[in-house]
Design brief:
This protein is mainly α. It is built from 9 helices and 7 strands, in the order βαββββααβαβααααα. The longest helix is centred in the middle third of the chain and has 20 residues.
């Protein structure tokens, strides 16, 4: 999921009304504006043993820096696309999973339906590593209802709502602090509610539900 550094404002509302151009403060005249809003992309999961990874979600920007080839232009933006996600699964997800959760064959893996997760190169790596998994074609179309990690990301965003940061590292620090408040027992209660949530979705003909 993605969390932004600062709240997003409607640029059409950013107007200054004055009687004379001389009345516009210098700092407003010279204020710079970024073309793209700064944000961080997170990767994480939820299990009966708690959130995974335990201490912090994986910050994709940091992982992309680790895999940047020597001699590559450091100013060139790297994107988290399908082939990189296919590399991310064995290099990071499987490694951390085995370290924190144990034998991966004892777990049922479910990924979301983002385009990069559904590319064949990524699907092949997931099949190779996770024997037990839910295929994307069998996943719910409305993940907010039945994908618990979406509830975790939603809770994080709600807790951080209204806070403003000047540095990405400040945002990451608060994300880690809030994630650590998710206890194992809370994760277990969320998972235990899944049968009832699935029944609600079925009873409503697949329409979105709002009940937590």
């Amino acid at each position: 999921d993605t969390l932004t550094l600062i709240p997003q404002y409607n640029q059409h509302n950013e107007d200054v009304y004055v009687k004379s151009i001389n009345g516009i403060p210098y700092e407003l005249k010279t204020k710079s504006k970024e073309k793209f809003q700064k944000s961080v992309i997170l990767w994480g999961g939820i299990s009966y043993q708690g959130l995974f990874p335990k201490k912090s979600p994986i910050f994709i920007d940091e992982w992309l820096k680790l895999i940047r080839l020597e001699g590559d232009d450091r100013h060139k933006k790297m994107y988290f696309i399908g082939d990189r996600y296919a590399q991310f699964i064995p290099d990071t997800v499987a490694e951390k999973g085995a370290e924190e959760l144990g034998d991966l064959q004892n777990f049922l893996f479910q990924d979301d339906q983002d385009r990069k997760q559904r590319m064949q190169v990524a699907l092949d790596d997931a099949k190779r590593i996770f024997i037990n998994r839910i295929e994307p074609i069998d996943c719910a179309a409305k993940p907010a209802d039945v994908w618990l990690i979406k509830s975790v990301w939603g809770s994080l965003k709600e807790k951080l709502r209204g806070r403003e940061y000047t540095q990405i590292e400040q945002l990451k620090t608060d994300i880690k602090k809030e994630q650590n408040k998710f206890s194992i027992s809370l994760c277990q209660r969320m998972i235990d509610k899944m049968p009832a949530r699935l029944k609600l979705v079925i009873d409503q003909g697949g329409n979105q539900i709002r009940k937590d």
